[in-house]
């Protein structure tokens, strides 16, 4: 399914992106669900897939995590099945992500899909990332509040909600409608009938996450080994005192690590190109030889990128799933980053570069790209 999003991106970014929530009526015209509720339930039975059931019965919230073995205990109202990163496991569902590549690849995270029966939802809450919620089969009512401080509480250890809020959006959504919610705006949705919802989430790493990852990189690469020194030690009246200049010197020493462009870029490329969820990697057996990859592409076959694989370009360097690619053909590497499908046309002369062909073959044998004819 080729999903065409009816959206004026420059206008949307200027007026709404990270500013205001908005309902995009019929954002996808004649919307067709890429999967059925039964298929979603089947994915939630797989150990590699992150899933959960959220129910609200008699005033009590319950959350259970997959994989699930059956759903016989569920009633006909007040529960939702939520499955994370469905784009990694279901190719037709992954097609829903493509219209959002008008936004940077490094900011896009994954596709979460939920199936809810009447009354089903996860309660009023807020997210710290942008999300586009696409309405599939069924109807669902959504309320969104203003971005103001709200008290948060946990009605269940695995569920963080906010106190009731006044709505600035109160809309009944139908198939093809899209609700965009920037970070920090409280919202709640509940189904009016059996309904599927598709949430395109965006990656927004916290300062804590960034610093922790960068510290791991420093340790792994044995950087920052130079010790603090003070050849111009300043005398002081009280030996217990730490002088402001000394504190500043320590701070500058730490900042100097971040301000090294090469290592900082290398760390961020590795960090941000890693997927936060499992990938459906299936390496070919037996592995390909470079001449086999060349012959197949020359004959008109194409290679398809694994759904959910993060391929990013930073300062001319291309990173794939936490690893920087290295070969002599910079143009070939840029094609890997730009295109979801590779063929002899867009690869061009890069196929004649032995180092690029070897790198491409290694990626195919790693399960990151696969021949579409298989």
Spell out the CATH superfamily of the largest domain.
Answer: Cupin
The CATH class of the largest domain, by name, is Mainly Beta
Tally the helices. 10
Spatially, the strands of the biggest sheet line up as 1-11-6-13-5-4-2-3
Domains, number: 3
The rough form would be described as globular
| Residue fraction in strands | 15-25%
The SSE string, one letter per element, is HEHEEEHEEEEEEEEEHHHHEEEEHEHHE
Largest sheet: 8 strands, antiparallel
Integer-rounded radius of gyration:
25 Å
Unreliable stretches, pLDDT < 50, 5 or more residues?
none
What's the gist of this structure?
With 374 residues, the chain is α+β, with helices and mostly antiparallel strands. It has helices at residues 9-15, 37-43, 91-94, 207-220, 244-258, 261-272, 290-298, 330-338, 344-347, 354-365, and strands at 22-24, 51-57, 60-65, 79-83, 108-116, 131-135, 140-145, 152-156, 159-162, 167-173, 178-181, 187-191, 195-202, 303-305, 311-314, 317-320, 323-324, 341-342, 369-371.
How would you describe this structure to a colleague?
The protein has 374 residues and is an alpha+beta fold. The protein folds into three domains: 194 residues, Jelly Rolls (Sandwich); 66 residues, 3-Layer(aba) Sandwich (Malonyl-Coenzyme A Acyl Carrier Protein, domain 2); 82 residues, Malonyl-Coenzyme A Acyl Carrier Protein, domain 2 (3-Layer(aba) Sandwich), CATH 3.40.366.30. The protein is 25% helix and 25% strand. The chain has an eight-stranded antiparallel β-sheet, with helices on one face. A hairpin with a 2-residue loop joins strand 8 and strand 9. Helix 7 crosses helix 10. The mean pLDDT is 96.
């Amino acid at each position: 399914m080729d999903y065409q999003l009816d959206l004026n991106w420059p206008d949307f970014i200027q007026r709404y992106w990270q500013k205001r929530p908005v309902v995009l009526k019929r954002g996808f015209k004649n919307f067709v669900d890429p999967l059925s509720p039964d298929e979603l339930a089947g994915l939630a039975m797989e150990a590699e897939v992150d899933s959960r059931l959220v129910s609200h019965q008699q005033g009590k919230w319950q959350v259970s995590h997959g994989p699930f073995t059956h759903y016989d205990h569920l009633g006909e109202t007040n529960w939702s099945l939520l499955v994370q990163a469905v784009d990694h496991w279901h190719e037709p569902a992954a097609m829903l992500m493509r219209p959002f590549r008008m936004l940077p690849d490094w900011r896009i995270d994954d596709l979460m899909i939920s199936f809810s029966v009447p009354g089903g939802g996860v309660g009023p809450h807020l997210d710290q990332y942008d999300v586009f919620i696409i309405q599939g089969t069924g109807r669902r009512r959504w309320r969104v509040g203003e971005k103001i401080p709200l008290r948060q509480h946990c009605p269940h250890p695995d569920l963080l909600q906010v106190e009731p809020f006044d709505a600035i959006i109160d809309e009944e959504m139908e198939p093809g409608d899209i609700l965009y919610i920037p970070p920090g705006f409280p919202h709640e949705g509940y189904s009016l009938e059996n309904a599927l919802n598709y949430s395109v989430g965006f990656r927004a790493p916290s300062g804590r996450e960034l610093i922790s990852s960068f510290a791991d990189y420093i340790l792994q690469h044995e950087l920052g080994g130079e010790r603090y020194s003070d050849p111009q030690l300043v005398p002081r009246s009280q030996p217990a005192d730490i002088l402001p200049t000394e504190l500043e010197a320590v701070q500058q020493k730490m900042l100097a690590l971040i301000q090294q462009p090469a290592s900082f870029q290398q760390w961020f490329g590795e960090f941000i190109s890693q997927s936060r969820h499992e990938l459906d990697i299936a390496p070919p057996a037996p592995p390909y030889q470079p001449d086999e990859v060349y012959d197949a592409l020359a004959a008109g076959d194409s290679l398809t990128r694994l759904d959910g694989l993060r391929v990013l370009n930073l300062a001319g360097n291309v990173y794939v799933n936490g690893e920087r690619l290295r070969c002599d053909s910079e143009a070939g590497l840029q094609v890997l980053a730009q295109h979801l499908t590779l063929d002899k046309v867009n690869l061009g002369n890069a196929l004649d570069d032995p180092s690029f062909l070897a790198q491409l073959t290694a990626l195919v044998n790693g399960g990151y790209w696969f021949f579409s004819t298989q």
